[in-house]
Structures are given as C-alpha cells and as structure tokens.
Design a protein that fits this description.
Elements lengths: L4 H16 L5 H17 L2 H35 L4
Helix pairs in contact: 1-2, 1-3, 2-3
Length: 83
C-alpha cells in the first residue's frame, strides 16, 4: 500500500508555501514531506504513510494559522493607507 506520489508533491508544495509565508511551522512539514519520498524509494509503505500524515498535519496547520494573519495584515494595510 504505497501512498501516491502526487500526495507527496502536494504537501511538499504546501510546506514550501507555508515556509515562504514566514511561518516556521512550514519547516517540519517540509521535513516530513521529504521523508515520505525517501520511505517510498525504500519501499516502506508504513513509514511513508505515517510521514505523509505528519506532513499534511504540519502543512495545513501552518497555512491555517498563517493565511488569516496575512489576510488581517493586508486588511489593516488597506484601512490605514496614506491618503
């Protein structure tokens, strides 16, 4: 039972996005996403599945925390812009 490679790529991309939004929580997601690829190459489906779940959790948590903060910052910048 191998996790699909497309899932690995999705969470790798989400982790990079979270990392570029200045959230240090994107780093563990990136770490676990690369471990998924390594476990797939070794043929260890159980470790790959476990690491994929961890990558998904960290990536979505980081984005869920960071995106509202970025939106709030943009709203404040719009409201308090010089006229």
């Amino acid at each position: 039972m191998k996790p699909p490679v497309s899932s690995w790529r999705l969470y790798f991309a989400l982790s990079l996005l979270a990392l570029f939004l200045c959230s240090p929580l994107g780093a563990p997601g990136l770490f676990f996403a690369t471990r998924v690829r390594r476990a797939e190459k070794k043929g260890d489906a159980q470790d790959a599945t476990r690491d994929l779940r961890a990558a998904r959790a960290f990536s979505l948590f980081a984005l869920g925390l960071q995106l509202p903060l970025v939106g709030f910052y943009i709203l404040l910048a719009y409201l308090y812009r010089p006229v």
